[in-house]
Amino acid sequence: MDAKAEGRSARKDHALDDRTDMTANFLGLPRTLPDGRAPAAVIFGAGHGSTYPGKDSTAHARAADAIRAASKADAGLLTHWDFDLGGPLFPDGLVACVDSGDLPTAMHDNAGNRALIEARTRAVLAEGAVPILLGGDDSVVIPFLAGFAEGGPIWILQIDAHIDWRDALDGERFGYSSPMRRASEMGHVAGMVQVGLRGVGSARPAEIEAARDFGSRFVTARELHAGGIDTALRHIPEGARVVVTLDCDGLDPAVMPGVIAPAPGGLSYTQATQLIAGLGRRARIVGFDLVELYPPADIGGLSALTAARLVINAIGAIVRQA
Predict the structure, then answer these.
(1) Are 294 and 9 in contact (CB under 8 A)?
(2) CATH number where 283 lies
(3) Are 284 and 194 in contact (CB under 8 A)?
(4) What start-end ranges are recorded for coiled-coil regions in this protein (predicted)?
């Protein structure tokens, strides 16, 4: 073996094994990569966003830790074949994602939390990496999307049972019922596709009309079950920069029971991972968030495990982008 090959081999071993004291991180990933390499993606958590008056967001704030704990089973398998991805998570063997930990958010410090989330998102993007946010309830999505303002237009692919277009609820305009309404007001948001819609939620006819006036494309869960993932992906322009926002209640409660508003008939795990992979091939994933896991309602850790696998699939799609 020549010197260059030996160096590559040493770096690979170091990248996969240097997880000392990182057992609490997602997949045991390091906080920084060795040899000064820049990561393709950076994970961070935000337990609290904009909590409604009189509400308690503590349980949602436990979600990131639950997801990280569920990922431990795969932490020692980074070089193993992943059938969801058609190969190991990191195809060249070099770890390309880091977990930078949680932001110091605090319940009811709504403006402060939004500032923290937006600033961290901007900082990750400034490094040339893809931010991956672990919520928290759906309110953390608003400052996350705001953090993309300086990089050019983005599209949003939302996986959710609900459209989240309330202008305000209990006087709060930045709560978990409003992220897509606030996103529609951001000048850098070029369009959105909302997938998995079903049942009944906070949306009234006025919110449906407002979303349609903006140009949002609705793809109900029933439509996706009947027509496959192309019913959603065809609305995304080829080559577009896309942020994926995944509300756990977008999935069927048979595989994701740990949510606060379960609705039968949601996406399967396979459909969700196919959407992520298909999007990575059609467009460019520039951001990903997973929100609304509610640990007190989980059953046997199934929801946290499913959430962890969804994040792994997102990382896999991101590192495979050209």
Answers:
(1) no
(2) 3.40.800.10
(3) no
(4) none
Instruction: State which amino acid sits at residue 177.
Output: S
Record the tokens describing residue 233, joined without a space.
């992906």
Half-sphere exposure of 318 (CA within 13 A, CB side): 28
For residue 289, give the nearest of 157, 104, 113, 112 by alpha carbon.
Answer: 157
Residues in the chain: 322
23/96 Cα distance (integer angstroms): 17
pLDDT in tens, 213-264: 999 999 999 999 999 999 999 999 999 999 999 999 999 999 999 999 999 9
Residue-number span of the structural domain to which 273 is assigned: 3-319
pLDDT band at 45 (very low <50, low <70, confident <90, very high): very high
Q: What is the pLDDT of residue 35?
A: 84
Cβ–Cβ < 8 Å for 125, 151:
yes
What's at 66, amino acid-wise?
A: A
Q: Could you tell me the pTM of the whole model?
A: 0.93
Give me the sign of the Cα torsion angle 292, 293, 297, 299: positive
What integer is the mean pLDDT of 104-114?
A: 98
**Is residue 1 classed as helix, strand or coil in its secondary structure?**
coil
Report the alpha-carbon angle 46-159-239, nearest 5.
95
Place of tokens 């709560």: 175
Nearest to 139 by CA among 101, 98, 168, 161: 168
Mean pLDDT value across residues 160-167: 98
Per-residue pLDDT at 19 exceeds 80: no
Give residue 21's identity as a one-letter amino acid code: D
- Provide the number of structural domains found in the chain: 1
97 three-state secondary structure: strand
Q: What mean pLDDT value characterizes the chain?
A: 93
